[in-house]
Amino acid sequence: MAFACCGRIFLSRSGGRKALSTSRAYLESLLEYGRTVLTEKEPLQKKALTHEARKLFVGGNLRIRGSAAATAPESWARNELPAVLDPSEMPKPKEAEGSAILFYLHSLAHVELNAINLCWDTMVRFSNVEMPEEFYDELLRVADDESRHYGWLHT
Known about the structure:
The protein is mainly alpha-helical. The protein has helices at residues 30-39, 43-58, 100-125, 133-154, and strands at residues 2-5, 8-11. It has one domain (2-154). A two-stranded antiparallel ribbon has the order 1-2. It is elongated.
């Protein structure tokens, strides 16, 4: 399967979309969800996990901390393709294949995905500091909003 990104065509190594898991029963806490999202490479899986965590947390079925401490990874997981480029190496909208609007929508999708990661990273990275439940609730609400926005741009 091929997809376009930043004016280039890339081939998916798997030949198609990866099936998304719908059950994460082994995740016992919000912070474990956070660590899982940050180490997940597939953007749609990040979206699904974020929405699932929000639903469980709001419903009172997910506590903030589990039996094991969650630590933030050194860097967020991402797919191998497309390659990460220095901003100066990125094609300009005029140089991109297709319309400029697609170029900007693609850029916006990157912003939404980074916003999801930032919310989760903040929760997990500062989990050693005792924060009120509202801190986690607000960041999770924002992450869920950003995951919906990403979903709109992905379709």
